[in-house]
Amino acid sequence: MTCLSIVKSKTPLALWNAMNTPKRAASNQGTGSDQTLEPQFKKMYSPVKFPLPSPTNVEKRTDFTKLSRQPPKRTPITFSPLSRVSSDIFSGSTPSAEPNPSPRRKFSTKDIEECSICSNQLFEVCHPHISTQQIESRFQTENYYCPICKKQHPKQSEGRRSLVLGSSTLHNIWKVSEYKPNFHVDFDCIIGGKIHDVHASFLYQYAKIKEPMDVLLACGVNNIPSTDSAHDIIFQFKSLVKSILQHSEDQGHVKPSRVVIASLLYAPKYCDARLNPQLNMIDKVRTVNKWIQEYNEKATGKQLDLHLHGVAGDPSIGDIKHRYEEWREPQWERKLHFTQEVKGTVAKDLIKVFTDLKWAK
């Protein structure tokens, strides 16, 4: 009997038994001495132990419960790499296991203490913030020493309020000798602040003020080297102006607040010919300044032309020629702020703008 005949005549179970059972020698009937042995099949072993499929024609199946050797029990997997991860990560809050958890996001332009004006339940803001309103709040008396005016005077509670909202562009301008107004001016300057920072500061501090205001906006230079387009910057200016005018409408002012926007500087930091063309923002500044000039002409007719300082001629056309000695920083690629001498000239222009607004009908 050949292997092929064995395979054809056996059921799966019989075939398995036949393959593992040694065959007896069989004698040929034709001869008495010659014997032919059927081939013996060797046992096959597999390194992987798995049960064979049970044949369908076998009535009695193996009962593992009656065997002395029980099949190994599978232990359910209870550990997961995510078993120790708190569900708080999906809610945006800090896991409570950490010491002193804070759910707020931190924004910092400098390594300083938290700004009590601009921080809230969602954000921890750290930036230098010079605020007249904050200075006044430290005094419980009606009169206080004003470091801006360098003299003692009562807190303003009536009449039109003059206010400078900005970044570091006009910071410390009150310290130059040319700054001598005969009225108080509120300053709210955020070092490194962008337009949306100034906007938030106005809402935090001046939304409760009842009197109308003459506001000068001196911000936007920190938006120029960012990813904000000229359209984005103009939109942010429009939004801030709308909030200021909405304040007057809410308070029912007969003579509503007025806004003048200072033009943006052509600072060498982002408008120098030596810069990589992708980092040269001259076209962006020109686009924004064109809109600022048109807005001021239509709204008040007053301008604070900061873009004419630190350069030679009119920077809105042709190539820009900088006067590097009029910028404070020593390295040309960092020049962003005017020297105190230039700020002295700007201070005179600033006082004139506020004076004209007070006398304007």
List descriptors.
single chain; 361 residues; alpha/beta; Rossmann fold; two-stranded antiparallel ribbon; 8 helices; 13 strands; 27% helix
Overall description:
The longest helix has 22 residues. The protein is α/β, with parallel strands linked by helices and 361 residues long. It has a domain of 247 residues: Rossmann fold, CATH 3.40.50. A five-stranded mixed beta sheet has the order 5-9-8-10-11, with helices on both faces. A two-stranded antiparallel ribbon has the order 1-2. Helix 4 packs parallel to helix 5. It has eight helices and 13 strands. Strand 10, helix 5 and strand 11 form a beta-alpha-beta unit. The relative contact order is 0.09.
Query: What's the CATH topology name of the domain at 113-359?
Result: Rossmann fold
CATH class of the domain at 113-359 reads Alpha Beta
How many distinct helices? 8
Structural class: alpha/beta
Backbone CA Rg: 43 Å
CATH superfamily of the domain at 113-359: SGNH hydrolase
Elements, N to C (H/E) = HHEEEEEHEEEEHEHEHHEEH
Q: How can the largest sheet be summarized? A: 5 strands, mixed
